[in-house]
Fold this sequence. Notes:
mainly alpha; disordered C terminus; single chain; 2 strands
Amino acid sequence: MSTTPTAPDHTSASRHTASPYRLQTGALLIIAFAVVLFLLVQARFMLISLVTAIVIFSLMSDAISFIARQKVGPFRIPNWLASVVALALISAALLTLTSIILAQINTVLTTTLSYTDRFPEAMAAMVAWMGADVEQAVFNSASTIEVGGYLRQMAGQASNLMQGTVLIILFVGFLFAERVWFATKLTNFVGDADQAERVSRIIGSIIHRVNYYLLVKTFVSAVTGLMIYALALFFGLELALPLGVLTFILNYIPNVGSIVATVLLTLVAYVQLGDLGQTMVIFAVAGAVQFTNGSVIDPMLMGRALRLSSFGIIISLAFWGAVWGIPGMFLSVPIMVGLMIVCSHVPALRPVAILLSREGLPEEDAGLPKPIADAPADETPHHEAGDAPSALAPKAQPGPAPAKRQGLAS
Length: 410
């Protein structure tokens, strides 16, 4: 009886060989993530200012490109003049907004400190219907809370806002100074004109969506803040204006901000009025306003502009809130938008984009906006010596993927 020799099991051997390499790769990824996380936490003040400056710069990039293409008689507005005017307007707006926010925060903290003595009584009165023992227990517990210490700590953190504003203005100024060379640097960095054009369109898509999100969010937050201000003014609350301003600011934090603003309004109303019935009316009206504006009007205006997963937004909010605190919560959605778009165009990372998108359908190349460099000849602006079209100033109108240029095709 003849026997057939058994062939060596190369598959099993390759699996045993690949296993240590996979383990090593996983360990290196964990170490790299830990190092990046450490740097994000340690350099958060600088990084928060830089990310905010990039967002503000992207907001003004389209406007500057539009202004620079305009003509006053036979003269075209120079790119540098449009950038200088934009930087001056941004600086004035940021400094004014920071001063208003600090003034309102100081007003809230000063007024709240005067009510700290009434805080334990107000908390105990809310549970008086449960019995004298429970009321006394809540009063004793509330008396141990050092509200004044927490408020003074918040005031100390708010004082860093002006320093951050100055740093943001400096970053925006340097970005404007380098703006005209972005397209040239991108082409030289990538080394291929077609690939640089594709990267420019991806950047343009990120800018377009972040800008649209911020514009819609600003409109909805402003309307909500005005309605809360009117509600507080109607019930005679002393902090009507500060509460309206804080509602406007907090509504930039997705999902959580509206809840915090409503709870804050309710607590202030109860401590000042001391009437549970009026407080519940204020809570109900404020909740209805926040729900209508945040869950009906906001999604209706956003449409399919973001297409972000709600669960992904919560995860991003929690992560960046843990890493960068409250500023990270404000920046969580713009960062998530950029991450989703970048991952959707990297084949190895496309599963991440699918998880971050709402319908599991991240955009394709055909959905990217057309950059200025590919505009028709009669619409392309003529640049002065040394000027170059910015890679961060795409058209807002989406268009089909551009065909290769004749010179590149040959």
